[in-house]
Protein 1
Amino acid sequence: MHLKIFRKESLSNYLGADQYFVKSLSAFDLMTLGIGAVIGTGIFILPGTVAANAAGPGVILSFLFAAIVCALAAMCYAEFSSALPVAGSAYSYGNIIFGEFIGWILGWALVLEYMLAVATVSTGWSAYFNALIASFGIHLPKAISGPFDPAHGTYFNLVAVLIVIIVSLILSRGMQSSKRVNNAMVILKILIILMFIGVGFFFIKPSNYHPFMPYKLSGVLKGATTVFFAFLGFDAVSSSAAEVKNPKKNMPIGILGTLLVAAVLYMGVSAVLVGMVKYTKLDVANPVSYALNLVHQGWLADTLAIGALIGMFTMMITTVFASSRLVYSIGRDGLLPKALSKLNKDKGETPENALVFVTIIIVIMGGFVSLDELTNLVNIGTLLAFTFVSFGIIPLRKRKDIENRGGFQVPLYPVLPIVSGLACLWMISQLSMTTFIGAGIWFVIGIIIYFSYGYHHSTIASDK
């Protein structure tokens, strides 16, 4: 058993299994997927609340520092996806570099990250949508507007369920058509953000930038640990590697380009927001809308509500897409039922069974379960994957059977991969005990599933 759980998959096996995917994604498509996942409602909230509570106008530097730390992990993902252009992201990388059991643990962590993230965002989308239609005098019955909680009169969240089904229907049409929808919505979202920056620029008062770091450098660094999580999501781009044209070139551009655009947008919104309104007044639920109403630009505040809905929608598209490719990959290896790896030839080689599976799980979570106490579990799943991908660069470089000539390589090897891994471990140490307990329960369930099913059905390192 000891040797079996650490057996490693070969890259050639994965490339053979994934060859049926249609390779249609360009670097631009990858960037819109990534930006769709990274830029959500947080861009309209975090700059204000972090400025008020931690960093002051120095929140601009908080986003810069957080982006630099994220860039370390992003470079490691860029090298892996360039060298190993296969579906499954960190799960598949783990199987090739560390062996079957570590790969399963990473895959199980990502299952939690992706599905819980989409379920949480679907409930947020529902709240924004209900508020929007309420402004027109339309109100949904209370019974269908929240998770199963009969004591408070709610039984399921209809809007959260419907929006996830709509996202899945778009993705089920194949990547060729769904990427057009995603690209258009991401461009619209960016235009709305740029509109805020352009309009808000004319209402900046230089005096609002003083003092720039009222809570000193420690406040800026505390702010950076908070906004770090706003950059998470770029890793979902690596799930698409098997469907990318020229992955050695386009995967690094997609991953690193996502992070660069996100950093510029976050810092731009932060700079304008704290210039428009004194940071001490920004500890409100929606600071960007608050600032616009203060300068009598309410029409743009209403537009931002639409931008928030679009932002959450594109995040769900990217993450449901990544979830389906992850579940496909685990099914491909026999660690979950093989039926999940079936590709539908009539819909552009889409892993339809995997898509249906993740949709059902997310609908149950978003429609019926209260997720308030569980959202931090998304962070620990992501950071665990980041840690292994960062440290994994070292054994990756030592593999003689993996060729990455002409592909991206992390500079200053091995220093930057080690620094990246240590930074991720430090971020994990900052999470709450409740998060660790929840993650512990999740991983115990995963280990039971592995040894009761996956261990006996695995096809890793065997002829398929």
Note: The longest helix spans residues 100-134.
Protein 2
Amino acid sequence: MTTAILTRLRGTVRAAWQIVRGVVGENAYERYLDHHRRNHPGEEPLGEREFWRRHVDRQDATPGSRCC
């Protein structure tokens, strides 16, 4: 395979992986940090552990249409 094809394939796989991460919610903390940076400058964001604790607690309190 040529280098161009491998580079393109790598980019496609990387993009697909980001889509999968978004669907399963794995990138929620990254999105939170981006939101926090834009909307709450000067305030300390939650640490990743505290963020996930609150995220899971919120989902448990309001399950909505989750499958499980």
Note: The CA atoms of residues 57 and 63 lie 10 Å apart.
